[in-house]
Design brief:
With 519 residues, the protein is of the alpha/beta class. The chain is built from 17 helices and 22 strands. Helix 3 runs antiparallel to helix 5. Bound molecules: nicotinamide-adenine-dinucleotide (NAD).
């Protein structure tokens, strides 16, 4: 009878699965310009983080579907690589116009699936849109090098040419910006791209695919598959995929870097972070407190460039009560609620994890002048909310310091001197972002010179470089050689072909030479 009940239970589970996958809206695949229902057996449920209501089901694409997507991208590449840079620019110019037109629509989808506030979600789209705009400079940026008369009657030119089919694997925290860091740069250089959005919020990518169709993007140039580990491993192993762009956590990123490289691919892997702010007592107090609160708690701390550690140097320690008061004013609610400053974190598990890390900090000896656990949010009793939290007196040995919390938690440390603060920052394994707050130019310059972090702000809390530069996280925050977007981004998506030509007037004297030609 226990066997019978087991079978019944299994059937019931299967029934529920089929039943609900028929009624819940599903996220489509995008292959060869078509939005398609997946034939997947496994579906991932996606919940609105503010209510935990089911929003959609995301398929774990089947092997066949993933293979079709690569075939389609391969075919699209064959004609796309022959197009002129001007016609590729035309596509991006049209795309930027419709993304701009639909910013609010895309932002609303981000707020629904990811939870961040509407204005923050618009920023998410906008930072991606800037990459689309900048890709239109490819006519200049894609130029190779040339030298005439490198030997008698001999000239050399080099071209930056596409790689073929490329792939992008995205995290949940910037559902529009990160795919837009990837495919516009890949396409403008003549590649096609397969995207695997985060299974936690693929909606923004799908809306952008609708826009690509609207502006006449050739079918197959960008395809979208969904899934998690299996889809990722498929991408790492598929021999037709030449390069992988990854943004996300250490665990996934190290795996993808290793497996992709083992398969002979180019990989750029943006990983986790722990970004330190150094506050000097000569800083502009009001501005610094505002900037710290915004950069620590905005997006509920779910930014890879969030300032999650503040090192108060000397007397700056005395500003903590004001910082606590400022953070207390931030309004926590569903992202679409007017006046909301921060929304929920992505999932119940994420909330639990953040709360556990806060707990561990307190247990280890930190004080908690502002505790966002168990926050009650009007109208949203089921959301994954954590309020702004401040832990002070944190030591580098604490779990809450060593782990990337990825929630609205600011851990505060103390240092006697700027050099002590620099030492703490440089001893952390991550090197994504950092900022100093000061009104003293020579302190600022010393900091810039000594700090071993890839993206540095001077009185700028979140120094994410604009698209004419590149996103240059370093040390533990990046694996690879070439960074995202900017000149490095185009170099990542291109290979160089160098042509040496000899054109001599009249009769060329031929004699076979067996030694290495030195021109
Ligand atoms: P994640 O690593 O969990 O997911 C990213 C992608 O990897 C997803 O598409 C997911 O399906 C896939 N994935 C997850 N686990 C995997 C596994 N074990 N094997 C193979 N694939 C796997 O990251 P996330 O939680 O979506 O994003 C948050 C993380 O991303 C944070 O650590 C944050 O710092 C980082 N991040 C970094 C940057 C940057 O530029 N450095 C930018 C944004 C986010």
């Amino acid at each position: 009878s226990s066997m019978l009940s087991l079978i019944r239970k299994t059937n019931l589970n299967a029934f529920c699965k089929n039943y609900s996958s028929n009624v819940a809206p599903t996220t489509k695949l995008f292959i060869d310009g078509q939005f398609r229902d997946s034939k997947a057996n496994d579906w991932i449920e996606l919940y609105d983080p503010a209510t935990n209501n089911l929003v959609t089901k995301v398929p774990q694409a089947t092997q066949n579907e993933m293979e079709e997507a690569v075939e389609s991208a391969k075919k699209a590449y064959q004609s796309w690589r022959q197009t002129s840079v001007l016609s590729r620019q035309q596509l991006m110019l049209k795309l930027q116009a419709v993304i701009r037109r639909d910013i609010k629509k895309i932002a609303a989808n981000i707020t629904l699936e990811q939870g961040k506030t509407l204005s923050d979600a618009e920023g998410d789209v906008m930072r991606g849109l800037q990459v689309v705009e900048h890709s239109c400079a490819a006519g200049t940026l894609l130029q190779g090098e040339s030298l005439s008369n490198i030997a008698k009657d001999m000239d050399v030119v080099s071209y930056k040419l596409p790689l073929g089919v490329t792939a992008g694997i995205c995290p949940f925290n910037f559902p529009a910006m990160i795919p837009l860091w990837m495919f516009p740069m890949a396409l403008i250089a003549g590649n096609s791209m397969l995207i695997k959005p985060s299974e936690k919020d693929p909606g923004a990518t799908m809306l952008i695919m609708e826009l690509l169709n609207e502006v006449g993007c050739p079918p197959g140039l960008v395809n979208v598959i969904h899934g998690s580990q299996d889809a990722v491993n498929f991408i790492c192993d598929n021999k037709d995929i030449k390069a992988i762009s990854f943004v996300g956590s250490d665990r996934a990123g190290k795996h993808i870097y290793q497996r992709g490289c083992d398969n002979g691919k180019r990989v750029q892997s943006n990983l986790g972070a722990k970004n330190h702010a150094i506050v000097l007592p000569d800083a502009n107090k009001e501005a610094t407190i505002d900037q710290l609160a915004g950069a620590a708690f905005g997006a509920a701390g779910q930014r890879c460039m969030a300032l999650s550690v503040a090192i108060m140097v000397g007397e700056a320690k005395n500003w903590i009560p004001d910082l606590v008061a400022r953070a207390r004013l931030l309004k926590v609610s569903a992202g679409h609620e007017p006046g909301a400053d921060l929304g929920p974190v992505i999932s119940k598990e994420a909330r639990k994890r953040v709360e556990t890390l806060i707990e561990s900090g307190i247990k280890a000896g930190a004080e908690c002048p502002l505790d966002g656990r168990n926050i009650k949010v009007d109208k949203y009793p089921n959301g994954n909310f954590v309020g702004p939290t401040i832990l002070t007196g944190v030591q580098s040995s604490y779990e809450c310091y060593k782990e990337e919390i990825f929630g609205p938690v600011l851990t505060i440390m103390y240092a006697d001197t700027l050099d002590d603060a620099i030492k703490i920052t440089n001893s952390n394994p991550y090197g994504n972002g950092t900022a100093i707050f000061t009104t003293n130019g020579s302190h600022a310059r010393h900091f810039v010179n000594e700090i071993d972090v890839g993206q540095v702000g001077v009185n700028v809390p979140i120094p994410v470089p604009l698209p004419m530069f590149s996103f240059t996280g370093s040390r533990g925050s990046f694996l690879g050689d070439l960074h995202f977007y900017g000149k490095q981004g185009l170099n990542f998506y291109t290979q160089t072909k160098t042509i040496t030509s000899l054109w001599r007037k009249g009769k060329v004297e031929v004699k076979s030479s067996v030694s290495m030609p030195v021109h």
